User: Which sequence fits this backbone?
C-alpha cells in the first residue's frame, strides 16, 4: 500500500503548481498550490460529506466492546515493527515495552483483541515506523504532499514500506491492509471532532494542518528512552489532523 502512495506522490509532482504569493512559502512544501487544492477537496468536500458522517456513524452505532476489540487488534499488529524500529534507534526500553505488549496480548489478550498488557501496567506506547528511524539519523521530511482521500504525506514516509516486511504486517494482503487503514482512519477521524472549531477558526487551516503534521513527524523521530513524553502534547499531536 505504501508503495502505491509513493508512486502516486511522484506523479503529483508533475501536476503541482507554485504556491500563492498570499502565503509564506514553506521549505518542505514546494507544491503548495496543488496541495492547497487537495486540502480544499479533502476538507470541504470529502470530509463533511463522506469521511465525517461515516466515522461518526461507526463510533455511534458500533458496540463499544466491538470497536475496542478491533482497535486493540489493529494496533497489536504494529507492536513488532515498533519494537524493531525503536531498537534501531537505540531505544532498548521502548523496544522491550513493545515486545512485551505483543507477547502478553497475543496470549492473555486473545491475539490482541483484549489489552491485557495495559491491565498489567505495560502502557501502550506510540507506534514507531521506519521513517522515524530515518528521521532519527538525520533524514529530513522531504517534500510534503496532500494526497486526495489519504491526507498529508512526506517523502520520508516512503521508508515505512519497510515495516510491511515485519511479521505480522507481512502476512496482510492488500485488502487486509486497506481494512486496517479504513478502521484506524475512522477512529482517528472521530477523535478530531473536539478540535474542529480550532481548525475552522484558523485564518489558514491548510498551513496549520501542515505545520502540526510536520512537527509531529519530527517529534516522533526524537523521542528516546531518556525523554519523558509530555502526555498532553503527545495526545494533541497524535490526534490533530494526523488522519485528515
Assistant:
Amino acid at each position: 500500500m505504501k508503495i502505491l502512495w509513493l508512486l502516486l506522490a511522484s506523479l503529483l509532482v508533475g501536476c503541482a503548481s507554485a504556491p500563492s504569493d498570499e502565503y509564506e512559502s514553506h521549505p518542505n512544501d514546494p507544491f503548495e498550490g496543488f496541495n492547497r487544492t487537495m486540502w480544499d477537496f479533502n476538507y470541504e468536500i470529502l470530509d463533511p460529506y463522506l469521511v465525517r458522517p461515516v466515522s461518526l456513524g461507526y463510533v455511534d452505532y458500533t458496540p463499544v466492546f466491538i470497536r475496542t476489540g478491533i482497535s486493540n487488534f489493529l494496533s497489536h499488529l504494529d507492536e513488532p515493527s515498533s519494537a524493531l524500529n525503536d531498537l534501531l534507534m537505540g531505544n532498548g526500553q521502548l523496544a522491550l515495552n513493545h515486545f512485551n505488549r505483543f507477547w502478553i496480548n497475543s496470549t492473555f489478550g486473545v491475539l490482541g483483541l483484549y489489552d491485557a498488557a495495559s491491565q498489567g501496567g505495560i502502557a501502550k506506547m506510540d507506534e514507531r515506523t521506519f521513517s522515524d528511524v530515518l528521521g532519527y539519523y538525520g533524514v529530513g521530511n522531504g517534500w510534503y504532499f496532500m494526497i486526495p482521500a489519504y491526507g498529508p504525506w512526506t517523502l520520508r514516509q516512503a521508508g515505512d514500506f519497510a515495516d510491511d516486511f515485519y511479521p505480522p504486517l507481512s502476512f496482510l494482503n492488500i485488502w487486509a491492509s486497506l481494512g486496517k487503514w479504513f478502521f484506524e482512519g475512522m477512529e482517528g477521524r472521530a477523535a478530531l471532532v473536539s478540535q474542529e472549531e480550532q481548525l475552522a477558526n484558523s485564518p489558514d487551516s491548510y498551513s496549520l494542518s501542515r505545520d502540526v503534521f510536520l512537527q509531529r513527524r519530527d517529534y516522533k523521530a526524537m523521542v528516546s528512552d531518556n525523554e519523558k513524553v509530555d502526555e498532553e502534547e503527545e495526545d494533541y499531536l497524535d490526534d490533530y489532523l494526523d488522519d485528515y
Observations:
- The radius of gyration is 18 Å.
- The first strand starts at residue 144 and ends at 147.
- The chain has eleven helices and two strands.
